[in-house]
Amino acid sequence: MAEEGHRLDPEDWDAFGSQMHALLDQCLSRMQHARDLPWQPKPEDMGARMALDDVASAQDAGQVFDRLTGEIMPYATGNTHPRFFGWVHGTGLPVAVGAEMVAATMNSNCGGRDHGAAEVERAVINWLCQLSGLPETAFGILTTGTSQATILALSAARMRLFGQDIRKKGLKVIPDMAVYIVEGGHSCISKALEVLGHGAQALRTIPVAADGRMDLTALQVAVTRDRAADIVPLAVVGTAGSVNLGVFDPLDQIGAFCQAEDIWFHVDAAFGFWTLLADAPWCDLPKGIGQANSIACDFHKWMSVPYDCGACLISDRDLHRQTFAERPSYLASQSDGLAGGDLWFCDYGLELSRGFRALKVWTTVQACGTDALGASVTDNCRQAALMGQLVEASDVLTLARPVVSNLCCFWPDRGDPGQIAAKLQLQGMAVFSTTLVDGRSCLRAAIVNHRTTQADIKLAVEAAESEVRALG
Questions:
Q1: Using CA atoms, how far apart are residues 137 and 122, in angstroms rounded to an integer?
Q2: pTM
């Protein structure tokens, strides 16, 4: 007689194991041959082929796996390829495939309770705090990325000003507030202000000085003007690696300003944080980051950890916890057992159900080591500098700005940069994105790929030149 009820585990574990091994082989083969697999457009009918219209009956796992590798895996973003320079997309690591497999096997909920995954995340956060130079009182939490981390950081900034009243009574008990960011700062700051209820109009854009970094005189003027109008400065955001040009604000000077003015100092270090691991002169770019009240950064960019994983670090652990801790009776702590432990990450963020993001970070750091990770960051900065030199030597390309870190922007002397970028993408030659510099569209390369070589840089620039020259 059949066992009563229905089960979802494989009926034949040996057969399933063979199918899983075959799937793993295909995944590793794709990573091994990433250089031969540039971005390719998805089939026009892919949406129809993926539709879940008739799924009442189970399909053999092996057949499903075949569809994963044959119909889905080839049509990725393309950011595993060494000449993918579009936006700031990290490239993934083979060791992290193993970590993701183990994390999925454990299926840990990292919102709370006393289990091993919490200790792994604690270790990652402690390492980040030490690396950044934050005080011993600092702590943090892993997030989906810098956008989520920014919401957490500005929430803590607001809690410092208004205490528990802001959690109980909301915006009606506080005055208008302002956040200051350099021209060209990331849009996640504006989004965070919208989500927090202050609106995008609370954002103050500070012009750049002659060196392309935040103008501190203009910052002082903006703060003084707002205070005279009874608008409370909530935070100053220092940018560690601007999204368009890779420029770093003078974080040490902004930190001193914020301390003197008693304003929260937040650093948007989505990718620029990792220059801390690089060789000189790039390791000096984020000088002063340890003065911050909060830092947001991503692992899934320059650290090549698979999507998604970011971090929010806050210099005052007690304040951080006060900002988010909320324990209904069903989440009450106990002195012993699974409900014990001194660390529940749901007390430090918005998510109660959280995946084991920390494992792929821990695995990456352990398996690669900070020396190799830093060397990869250094390589990318050198490659961006090389691209800048090649562009300057070109008769059909013009460098938009001097290269500071890992970004290089340039104008083609003729043609639409967007169309040129699309042609290079469709040819499988290279992926550039586009942006505006001085109001003029240009090609933009953000180099964060550990697979990129100098040969890739030369080939990409030559391909761009060829497309420009073909325009006559």
A1: 14
A2: 0.96
Number of domain units in the chain: 2
Same domain, 422 and 325: no
Residues 314 and 339 in one domain: yes
List residues bridging with 295 in a β-sheet.
267, 313
Name the DSSP class of 306.
P
CB 155 within 8 A of CB 324: yes
Ramachandran angles phi, psi of 452, nearest 5°: -70, 140
Residues 318 and 438 in one domain: no
Task: Report how far residue 41's alpha carbon sits from residue 59's, in angstroms, rounded to the nearest whole number.
Answer: 27
271 and 396 housed in the same domain: no
Q: Let me know whether 205 and 252 are in one domain.
A: yes
CA–CA distance, 250 with 357 (Å, rounded to integer): 31
Host domain of residue 241: 109-355
Boundary-marking domain end, from 333, 355, 377: 355
Domain CATH number, residue 456: 3.90.1150.170
CATH number at residue 147: 3.40.640.10
Q: Give the C-alpha separation, 72 to 421, whole Å.
A: 24
- Give the SS3 label for residue 41: coil
pLDDT per position as a tens digit, 218-264: 999 999 999 999 999 999 999 999 999 999 999 999 999 999 999 99
d(CA 274, CA 365): 12
DSSP label at 71?
A: I
Whole-angstrom Cα distance, residue 52 to residue 432? Answer: 34
Question: Coil, helix or strand for 309?
Answer: coil
Locate 155 and state its tokens: 């929430």
Same domain, 290 and 176: yes
| Residue 127 Cα distances to 2, 117, 131, 249, angstroms | 52, 16, 6, 24
Q: Is residue 31 part of a domain?
A: no
**18 within some domain:** no
Distance CA 89, CA 270 (A): 11
pLDDT tens per residue across span 333-392: 887 888 888 899 999 999 999 999 999 999 999 999 999 999 999 999 999 999 999 999
In sequence order, the 6+-apart residues with CB closer than 8 A to the CB of 28 are 94, 97
**Coil, strand, or helix at residue 52?**
coil
Q: What is the DSSP letter of 87?
A: T
Structure tokens that stand for 383 in this block: 């490659």
| Apex 114 CA angle, 110 and 117, nearest 5 | 45
Q: Are residues 312 and 373 in the same domain?
A: no
Residues 258, 321 within the same domain: yes
C-beta separation of 433 from 444 below 8 A: yes
Please return the burial class of 352, using the count of CB atoms within 10 Å of its CB with bins 0-12, 13-18 and 19+. middle
Domain boundary among 322, 355, 388: 355
